[in-house]
What does this fold into?
Amino acid sequence: MRTFAPVKTIVETVCAILVFVLLLPSKAQAQTLSDTLNEVRISDVKLKDTTIDVRQQFAAGQQLQQIDKTYKDLYKMQSVAQLLAQQTPVFIKSYGINGLATLTFRGASAAQSAVLWNGVPILNPALGVADVSLLNSGLFDNLALQYGGSAALFGSGNVGGALALGNNDATFTQSKDAAITLGAGSFGRKDFAAKASYQNRRWRVAFRSFYQQANNDFDYLNTIGIKQKISNAQLNAAGALLSVDYKFKNESKNEHIIGAQLWMQRYRREIPPALFEQGSEKLQTDASIRSLVSWHRKINRNYFYAKASYNREYLRYQYVVVLPDNSNTVGQYYQEIGWRHTLNKTVDEEAAWLNSHQFLVFSPLQYAVASGENISNTEYQFRPAIVAAYNIQAFKNKLSANISGRQEWVNSVAAPILPGLGAGYKLLQERKDANHFTLQLRANVQRTYRIPALNELYYFPGGNKNLKPEQGWSQDAGYQFIFQKKHQDSDISVFEITHDVSVFNRNIQDWIYWMGGAIWTPYNIAKVHSRGMETDNKLSLQVANFRFHIGAKVAYVLSTTEDSYLPGDGSKGKQIPYTPRYNGQGNIGCSSGKLFLNYNHTYTGYRFTTIDESQFIMPYQTGNLQAMYTLQKQQYAISISAQLQNIWNQRYEVVNARPMPGRNFLLSLQLGWKG
It folds into this structure.
């Protein structure tokens, strides 16, 4: 293991940064940026009626982390994988530069982690996973993580958690804006992005696009410690997202809106050689087109919605040594129709337990088809379902509780009924003068379920048609404590502490894992027990025109095989491969008016590469320095951001034999206009 830079050096560096900020002249008020620095974890929030988040209103007791706007702006030229790896306790399993990157929630596998776009699942139904390195952060306004399983609401595959992607809803107020972003970085990187939107009382049209090019020719150490420049690592990527919304004329306050979205992108990635390879001529092309049409209408206490989506993904893998051309195409259709009804709220304090009731019934349908060189016949999965959920807000909205159930069919075969139960309670919510205290408790129990992906069943060679679905139960609980000291003459927080703790437990039977040598085959390795704890702690302090912040997120995860169908495999009692026991991130910095500075530090513990823990990868730590300056004058705005990634030049691998880049930088300039 390489020795990390001394703590003294880190402290001196951070202090120097803070001193530099303090010496900067600034007439602006510090609150300009500090309003956006409060990342929130929510367990029982009342969300706006949209087709995207109507199900979230029935997820009381579950932990939801919304990515802060400032950090979204910092990472707007980078992938969602990079953002999550540095700002959340979710482990991102990255196969190196230009390689696949997947999510791992709380010791779950990548296939047990859902990815949703406006409520539509976008996991590749053939692979069973979503490559988050192909998701550009700048395409989305909203990124949120829901921790813990919720198969009752979101269906098969939502075992460990879910990543939700979306964009802001139309306000249908007269406005227009546009922005162009230019970027450049190490290893021949060039970026371009553009966005624009227009809306009035009836229409909203929004457009976003990006282009990225990079050589990625960084230096690394080979197996005998000699420095080499990585080869065959060029990247070319482009994508665009178009949204159109229309609001029907209605004299009453009831909403009636339709919308359509079209998302297209293409990535051409050269796959560099692993450390055990002499060279590489691998080339992978990923292209996708995703469409979504949605409708919702609110009539008094009734809310109706419907949406339909068709996604098509194309993957072409070229490797002249083994396969000259290997192409696979996957098509997926998804639709959902739902109705939510809200009962009258009571005003009788003696009957406060009857405060508010909501009922939700919806029916999703998912149809996937896969074909290509590695699937002998065109294979499909047809999965209709019906879901019902009930939520109660009681005791003057201190209690939020829900119960839900789902019945799903897979190719006409009924899956197990999936129940779920959750609750959140505000144990303390007091205000004494300028001091605010909040203590919330939460708990959640879910039955989890995942059907095998098409490749797991039918891939040739290696598919296993005898695979059983993964299923089990998960439980999690936690609390959040917030203390705020407000300014006497305003609602501005001058001092704030947030302390959040979660514990979780999950038992899965018939866990699916790929094993083999020349030919890999998935097997059910029987029972896996996952348990652990996460904590998120933040402190912010306002001093004159400066707001200082410090925070740390830490996760401890044990995910072990309890029993195995494979005799003598040595996995019993051992950690699941590529599941670090310890994982953590920290941020420290400050903002003053137009300027934001932050130092980010990440730690990832040992990752075992075999099921018997006989081989492992050493832990690694990285440091990342980030700065952003925004200047606004009338209708125009200029934003400059700079990032120095891996500033300690740590040599590390996330996945065995796939070296990651050393010290590198990224600069961006955004010119914006708002009318």
About this structure: The CA atoms of residues 232 and 463 lie 30 Å apart. The mean pLDDT is 88.
